[in-house]
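Page 47, continued from p. 46.
Same chain as before, 387 aa.
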Amino acid sequence: MIAGKMMAILAVLACLWTAQAASCDNACSGHGTCGQNGVCQCFDNWGVGMGHLSGDCSERICPFEFAWVDKPDALGNHHKYAECSNRGICDRDSGECECFPGYEGKACARTACPNDCSGHGRCKEIQDMPFQQTPMQFDDGSFLAQKAHTFANSYVKWDADKTRGCVCDPEYGDVDCSKRMCMYGNDIMDQRDNLNNARKYHVQHILFVADSATFADQVQAKTFALSFTSKLNETFTTMPIVLDTADLKDFTKDVEYALESLPNKVIDDVHVASNLYQTTSATDTFSALHDGSSANSIYLNITFTGENVQGPQNLLTVKHIKCADGCTPQLTGLELHSTTMNVTEIMLSDYNSFECGRRGKCDYSTGICECFSGYTGLSCGTITSLV
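Result:
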């Protein structure tokens, strides 16, 4: 008797559960569980409509990212998370965003680069575009300028991971890297205000500062290298340079030779001067960097005097981290103060630097200057006739 009653109760409960399950629309389409009052609790990324209601869980929800444009909320906040970043239409069958032209990514979260950089550049996020300051190499071999830095602070605004642009390969330019770059040079007809004054050349100052009180003991016979980036965005690195504190004259000649040996005569003539500062006791090298005393340090003044490097040039990069097997060039490295490797421009040049020397037009299909009548040369820097 008792057993019969129990069976009847279980049967009633089963009927109630079945009725409850059947009350959810389309049994939640197999993408959710049926909750109370016949409301589906959808699995992740499933719902119905733009409102993402549970409904019968029959449609996909597309990825969300920070919206490019949206209405502010009650607190005035913009750029809230939005489906397809408000720059695409969600395909409810596949759960993929169909991005509007100019946007791409799984949530249309980033801009596309114009013409895919024409095959002559890399599409990079705004936070990864190099800021034009002196690159400083860290102990792990990385450089400060590999990220965008403004006064040593990274770009961290909302579009840091969203807005992208082209970083062109050497010898290519414009926003889509579609144009070949022409040679830059001094305008041969540009005159100084006072021809009696000595001609000024572009001079860069490189300062090496040691941690110890005796600079020579720490760096003597160690090697480093210099990298130079031309106006055509070509980057060349010198052979290893031995830092010889015992013979500064020979050391400066080695630096000159290394720079003038770069390919294509990218630096055709350069003059180097150096000097060594030492003290008998340990000195605060950080203060020395800022008050000009430069204790326990050596500096190089590099003067660009060649025709190929007239006018202002990009700052040199010092590679001082040890680079052994598999590296080019191989370097023993310099153990230097963390605030060293400052490269600064200490003299502005009387020369200028214009595309085609301002005396011709660049043929962007070939990268060759079409000089005006009376001028010739790679950068139209030679006068062929006087009018």
